From TrEMBL:
Gene3D superfamilies: Nucleoid-associated protein YbaB-like domain. Residues 115-180 are annotated as: Disordered. Residues 153-162 have a biased composition (Basic and acidic residues). This is YbaB/EbfC family nucleoid-associated protein. Residues 139-152 have a biased composition (Low complexity).
Length: 180
């Protein structure tokens, strides 16, 4: 009878351990659901917020972005996103180790975040804009027939560009399917 009571006590302790572990994982899940990380550019023009899954939940653009090159804006958005995801990984790792410990389940969670969100590659230093190049002194100065472009460009949004009448080639391809 003594062996039976010892086995029952062990099962009870094991059940209590499982309940405590389940409670820690529920607490972890609730706290992770609240995680969000925001990263911005050094000048503060662009900011990106990601949720616990690394998905972008907010993008903030300062008015100064309006005159920037679109490729530069896109590159800075992606860089902010990668930095936010890397910081998110660090916060998740800290939370997992604090609440759950260092067991195999914790290692699985942190390994998945490390795989999904590696450290971002170092960004190249931003070079100042290049100064305009003066023409060679020996070259004759020529007047430009078109005016020089201005630094602030306003798109012509009201202008609609479309062919007035379709030509024979347009009509031919309108009747064809791309599947044929």
């Amino acid at each position: 009878m003594d062996e039976l009571s010892t086995a029952a006590d062990e099962l009870t302790r094991h059940g209590q351990d499982l309940q405590r572990q389940a409670s820690r994982f529920q607490d972890l899940q609730a706290r992770m659901a609240q995680l969000g990380v925001t990263e911005s550019t050094p000048d503060g023009r662009i900011a990106v917020t990601v949720d616990v899954n690394g998905a972008t939940t907010a993008i903030t653009l300062a008015p100064a972005v309006r005159g920037m090159d679109p490729a530069t804006v896109a590159a800075q958005l992606m860089a902010c996103t990668r930095r936010a995801q890397a910081r998110l990984r660090g916060q998740v790792e800290e939370l997992v180790y604090t609440l759950v410990g260092t067991g195999p389940a914790a290692a699985t969670i942190t390994d998945q975040y490390a795989e999904r969100f590696p450290d971002p590659a170092p960004e190249p230093p931003q070079a100042p804009p290049a100064a305009p190049v003066a023409p060679w002194p020996s070259a004759p100065a020529q007047a430009s027939p078109t005016p020089a472009p201005t630094t602030s460009r306003r798109p012509d949004r009201d202008r609609i560009v479309a062919p007035e009448e379709p030509d024979d080639e347009d009509l031919y391809f309108q009747r064809k399917s791309w599947l044929q």
